[in-house]
Amino acid sequence: MRPGWRGRTERTLAVPEHQSRAAGRRRRRLYRWHRRAGVSAAAFLLFLAATGVPLQYSAELQLERRYVTVGAILDHYGLQAPNLALGSAGLVAVDDQIFYQHRPVAQLAGFSGALRYQGLVLAAGSEQVLLLDPDAAAPVLDQFRFTGGLGRLGSIEGLPVLETGTGVLMADAELANWRPLTRAPATEPEWAVAEALSAAAAAPYLTAYRERMLPLQRCLQDLHSGRFFGPLGVLFVNLASAALVFLAASGLILWWRQHNR
Amino acid sequence: MLMRIIIACVLSACLSPVGVGLAGAGLGLVAWAADARAAEHAYQSTESFIEESFAGAVPAARVLWLSPQLRETVRDVLGREPSLRVRYWRQAGRSAWVLDEIGKEQPITAGVLIRDGAIEDMRVLAFRESRGWEIRYPFFTSQFREARLAPDHALTRHIDGITGATLSVRAMDRMARVALLLDAQVRNDEARLARAD
User: What predicted TM-score, i.e. pTM, was given to this entire model?
Assistant: First the structure.
């Protein structure tokens, strides 16, 4: 017989009977709590897996570009669209989102107006001008970025012109280059103006804008962390995490006792 | 032992509101930091890149409209529908391209200078993602120098990735390949026109 085995046997034999009964009661109690924690944590683990696995593949699933459109969830987040929708040359801007026939086609900060040019649309923002083919699968054909801020977009003699911090620029016919307007134009520029839509006309655009405010990824992250349900949700996640720690510890203790029995 | 574990669990539950507060503050700080990083970082303007590329003698911009065949090839490289037209600058066998490509969520703007079908210089002009900005450093961008386009439209040079910037690295790789594809198209068009003349 190995010395270790002999030693354990002797120790076991040396334990008084009342202590042995108390140890048994403790073990049974630990089993009971281990089971309870396991059952409680099972639902939590399923929830964690259901919300966590998609997050692992957020890029592949394009979760950042998919949006939650359920009104109740958007209400829960307190997300409201702005009250103002601006329209010009068939484009409608709500905040920095540009729509064409209710379809989001581009993002442009500080929309100030648009004009049609050779079947395309030029849209001016506070820092850049977009060349759009609103019907194309990729509507943004080109972006012209300017430093120093932009003013109005217009046209002179059929060519687009743009007010910038350094003066008025005129585009060439191909819309490849914008050069300073050095000569005095024969006619006054026709400036593109963005006008506020009526409440009825703006409503579908405001709804479409609101339905693009909450990326699915953000919602899943909040569900995963419990923040979706507020402080109580975070508290619940903390408790459930503590249950998992308890499960691990109690499982180890039970395994250790069984192993040494 | 068991009682100690239970007491520890109860204590942690009782203390959890404090933990929630601290965690909330921590998350707030992290979110604030992420937002701060997500702001656009413009490292160089398009004009400055073009001026530097052509040593001050800036050619006029030209426009390349993508043919259906080229559009399909570019679509295969990008994995999305490409724009129908791209502006570029070309002079004395060199062409410069300024392209936008999304890394994870926001577009990265890169400038690519090509000489005779090989990348001479590639730079990040603007970075808008919250992570992966390390791709702007020369230790990364210099890897693209002398890269050409292989028959399968991959780069002929291996580009080492950066941990934590995988998607930005991939976006740079895609932009380099698209710039080489577009440059090849421009050179082919010019050669065809020269033969026709």
Answer: 0.73
